């Protein structure tokens, strides 16, 4: 099969021919139909996440058709359309796993990081951590739901039930979570880079009631804020924007250093919290909810062999919505 392979951090991915993987016990062999590109993939490829297996096939927002079920697989059969998220496996026995916090497992395995992912024509996945995909979605539309959607959904839950929500960084996750928040009858205030008028217009088209520069004060006092941009300097700005009792949620797996700030920004029972990975319950709840809203994903599709160009576009902020890779062999 063809796959885009990372040999060393900081280098371009290489298009290579490698063996089609064989599913082990409890695993599925999937023919990849689409694989979303996430900012986490950038952090892996650029070396900001420092423990990948090498060589590595990245990609963790995978939509695939089941080609073969390994021994002991329950709940899936050949031909099923399934999704594979970032969380690819856990130990199942630590204090976090047994207390419904498997997202915090210290022995977790991550797709496209410690096991090969979906920048390829085929991949394998632990069936216990795969999801059935709603019939309402094409593979390219569904792919961003597997991380941008799931992390956005978990971030929104962590933000509480306040009506006025600020979102910093309007990319793949933000454009999905905005639709959920608007469906919940919240007001969304979207923040982008000062010059990104295209992103601001996109935010308004997704339902944001206001969009502007991250350097601007909000037109109203916020109840909560979610930061998707990996920029630590946004944390003090978000704290300034939320009222007493407000929460600032850091929704990324990586963020630059947070600068020091006066205690008065935190005082008033404001809080800062990070979102770490996802649980299977998050996935089940969100994928049941998505077609009811219904969530519409905006995608820019790239062929598999243009993965580097897609990563460059995401790194430079040129993607509106989400980028998705499609192998030539996909049944779409």
Automatic annotation (TrEMBL):
Q: Which UniProt keywords apply?
A: Metal-binding, Oxidoreductase, Zinc
Fetch the CDD domains from UniProt.
CAD2
Cofactor(s) required for function per UniProt? Zn(2+)
A single Pfam family it belongs to is ADH_N
* Domain Alcohol dehydrogenase-like N-terminal: residue ranges: 24-135
InterPro entries assigned to the protein according to its UniProt record, in alphabetical order: ADH-like_N (IPR013154), ADH_Zn_typ-2 (IPR014187), GroES-like_sf (IPR011032), NAD(P)-bd_dom_sf (IPR036291)
Zinc: present as a keyword of the record? yes
| Gene3D superfamilies in UniProt | Medium-chain alcohol dehydrogenases, catalytic domain, NAD(P)-binding Rossmann-like Domain
Keyword Transport part of the UniProt annotation: no
The family classification in the record reads: Belongs to the zinc-containing alcohol dehydrogenase family.
Q: Could you identify this protein by its name? A: Zinc-dependent alcohol dehydrogenase family protein
Organism equals Pelotalea chapellei
């Amino acid at each position: 099969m063809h796959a885009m392979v990372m040999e060393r951090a900081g280098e371009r991915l290489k298009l290579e021919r490698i063996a089609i993987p064989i599913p082990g016990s409890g695993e599925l062999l999937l023919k990849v139909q689409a694989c979303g590109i996430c900012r986490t993939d950038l952090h892996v490829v650029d070396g900001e996440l420092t423990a990948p297996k090498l060589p590595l096939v990245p990609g963790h927002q995978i939509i695939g058709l089941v080609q073969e079920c390994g021994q002991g697989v329950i709940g899936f059969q050949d031909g099923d359309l399934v999704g594979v998220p970032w969380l690819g496996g856990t130990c199942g026995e630590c204090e976090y796993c047994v207390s419904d916090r498997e997202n915090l497992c210290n022995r977790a395995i991550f797709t496209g990081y410690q096991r090969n992912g979906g920048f390829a024509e085929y991949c394998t996945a632990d069936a216990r951590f795969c999801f059935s995909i709603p019939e309402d979605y094409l593979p390219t539309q569904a792919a961003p739901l597997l991380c941008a959607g799931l992390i956005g959904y978990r971030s929104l839950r962590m933000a509480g039930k306040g009506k006025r929500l600020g979102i910093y960084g309007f990319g793949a996750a933000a454009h999905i979570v905005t639709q959920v928040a608007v469906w919940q009858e919240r007001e969304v205030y979207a923040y982008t880079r000062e010059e990104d008028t295209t992103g601001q217009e996109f935010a308004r088209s997704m339902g944001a009631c206001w969009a502007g520069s991250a350097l601007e004060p909000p037109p109203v006092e916020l109840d909560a804020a979610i930061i998707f941009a990996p920029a630590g300097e946004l944390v003090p700005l978000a704290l300034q924007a939320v009222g007493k009792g407000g929460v600032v949620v850091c929704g990324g797996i990586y963020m630059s250093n947070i600068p020091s700030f006066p205690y008065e920004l935190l005082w008033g029972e404001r809080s800062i919290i990070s979102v770490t990975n996802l649980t299977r319950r998050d996935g089940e709840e969100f994928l049941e909810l998505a077609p009811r809203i219904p969530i519409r994903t905006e995608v820019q599709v790239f062929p598999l062999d243009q993965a580097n160009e897609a990563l460059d576009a995401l790194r430079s902020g040129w993607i509106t919505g989400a980028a998705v890779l499609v192998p030539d062999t996909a049944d779409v």
